[in-house]
Amino acid sequence: MKRRRWLRLWLMLGLLMLGNQCRADVVASYGAKVKFKKGAVMKFADFDLRYVGQRKVATPTFSRGMVFEDFQASKGSEKVMVSWSAGTGDIGPVGFEVGGGRFQLELRLADRIGRLKENELVVRRR
């Protein structure tokens, strides 16, 4: 009987410790692949980045429309919208400024890493 109690106690302690590790804030690295999903916040050393979602914009010149991937960068009360699009095929980084710093967001293709999966991005300091 005592053995079961000890086993339960150790199991509960282990689960509590594992739960605390899962909640710890992990800071994403600049220049490395970072996975993202809608609504999730990615913490970088200088700001937080949240994926807002996709939107399609059609113009008279490009009636098929372009798909934009929207993110919100924030530092304290400052919030900046960052919109990336491959547009008509030129896949390049989009620059943005937040918290006094200048950064680049890359999707689909990172200059130094290569191809990225649909749910991966790279952020670099400029």
Automatic annotation (TrEMBL):
Task: Give a yes or no for keyword Signal in this entry.
Answer: yes
The organism's superkingdom is given as Bacteria
| Signal peptide coordinates | 1-24
Sorted keywords for this record are: Signal
Name of protein: DUF3108 domain-containing protein
Q: To which species is this protein native?
A: Phragmitibacter flavus
Query: What taxonomic classification does the UniProt entry list for its organism?
Result: Bacteria, Pseudomonadati, Verrucomicrobiota, Verrucomicrobiia, Verrucomicrobiales
